[in-house]
Amino acid sequence: MSVDQIVTLSPTALEGSVPDPASYDDVSDGWIETEYRADFGNPAVEGGYWTGSAGSVAFESWPYTELCVVLRGRVAVEDASGARREFGAGESFVIPQGFKGVWHTLEETEKVFMGVQRAQ
Q1: Residue 120: what pLDDT?
Q2: pTM for the full predicted model
Q3: Is 27 exposed, middle or buried (0-12, 13-18, 19+ CB in 10 A)?
Q4: Cα atoms in the Cβ-side hemisphere of radius 13 Å centred on 67
Q5: Can you spell out the DSSP letters for 56-115?
Q6: I want to staple 64 with a disulfide (CB 3.0 to 4.6 A). Which of 4, 35, 93, 117 is the partner?
Q7: Angle CA(109)–CA(78)–CA(32) in degrees, nearest 5?
């Protein structure tokens, strides 16, 4: 193994893509996000760098257990009962696979993330 195998998670090191809004259960007007995904050589592992503007998306079932590290901005995660937690720059949190709720981007935000999908 060499240092050439180290993956840099940044918009300058990875190619960006905009996810299809149809992949979410509900999307607010004006929702804009860009993902800079890294290839980890394992289809059950996803991750990279993410940017988003104010808006929200709803999920019936979060696709993987995701570690989020907020670098800039502020987000909130709301569960199906309406309970809500907010996170800002410098904070980290984990969303479990299967979580049902809403992701709110409260202001322009940047995060790094790593998702691991378990067999269902």
Answers
A1: 65
A2: 0.91
A3: middle
A4: 7
A5: EEEESS-SSEEEEEEEEEEEEEEETTS-EEEEETT-EEEE-TT--EEEEEEEEEEEEEEE
A6: 117
A7: 35
